[in-house]
Amino acid sequence: MSAALAGLLRSQAVTCLPASPLTHRLLSDAAEDLDAGGVTAEVLADTVADPPGSVPGLRLAAAFHRLVLTRQAPRLALHYPSVGGAARLDSLWRDAADGLAQHREQVRSWITAVTVQTNEVGRSASLWGGLQVASQQAGGLGMRLLEVGASAGLNLRPDRVALQVGDRDARCPRLAAAAGPALDRAPTRRLGRAAACAASGGL
Predict the structure, then answer these.
(1) Beta bridge pairs of residue 169
(2) In this predicted model, what pLDDT tens digit does every residue of 2-19 receive, in sequence order?
(3) Helices then strands, each counted (H, E), the chain
(4) What is the residue range of 50's domain?
(5) Domain boundary among 72, 88, 113
(6) pTM of the complete model beyond 0.90
(7) Are 8 and 59 in contact (CB under 8 A)?
(8) Which of 51, 144, 178, 184 has the most neighbouring CB atoms within 10 Å?
């Protein structure tokens, strides 16, 4: 089980490059520590049976950052730009492991109790198709969107997301280049001119 968990940490670490070398190094070293039976194994003991989609690596990274933000790990804080630090990758794990060792039970409880919501633009694919059909049935009217519990506003801007349908580009014409979700099959309904979002807001 621990080998599989270490693999999840390494997989998550890879996705952190190039944007966050700090998190990449943190999770890579945590995986090594887990393999060696270090403090990471104890802290993540309750997650070994969790499904891969529960992203234990992100939960661990969030716990490290929470230690920093709550001023419980001053040496680790020196590595975090969010509190005025600068990452020193050669000594990062030493300070991170020290913070884990000092607060292992607290970090373990955080990781067990808290889930992580990732903001994935792919969720807009089905929404955009449904809105197009609704607009067409309403005579081509524009859309006004209100999302309750908005998450980063991703579902409030579906007309700004590129959408690949097979080998056809169905993106909004205002986008010259954008990465977006792909559909594995074409819609069964042929749509006319793409509808636009006239207004949007989130709560």
Answers:
(1) 164
(2) 889 999 999 999 999 999
(3) 8, 5
(4) 2-113
(5) 113
(6) no
(7) no
(8) 178
Helix (H, G, I), strand (E, B) or coil at 185: coil
Instruction: Say whether both 106 and 129 belong to one domain.
Output: no
93 and 128 in a single domain? The answer is no
Residue in the block written with tokens 């908005």 = 150
Output the CA–CA distances (angstroms, integers) from residue 75 to 92, 94, 99, 176, 194, in the order listed. Answer: 9, 9, 8, 45, 53
Mapping DSSP onto H, E and C, the string for the chain reads CHHHHHHHHHHHHHHCCCCCHHHHHHHHHHHHHHHCCCHHHHHCHHHCCCCHHHCHHHHHHHHHHHHHHCCCCHHHHCCCHHHCCCCCHHHHHHHHHHHHHHCHHHHHHHHHHCCCCCCCHHHHHHHHHHHHHHHHHCCCCCEEEEECCCCCCHHHCHHHCCCEECCEECCCCCCCCCCCCEECCCCCCCCCCCCCEEEEEEC
Mean pLDDT of the chain: 79
Strand, helix or coil at 46? Answer: helix
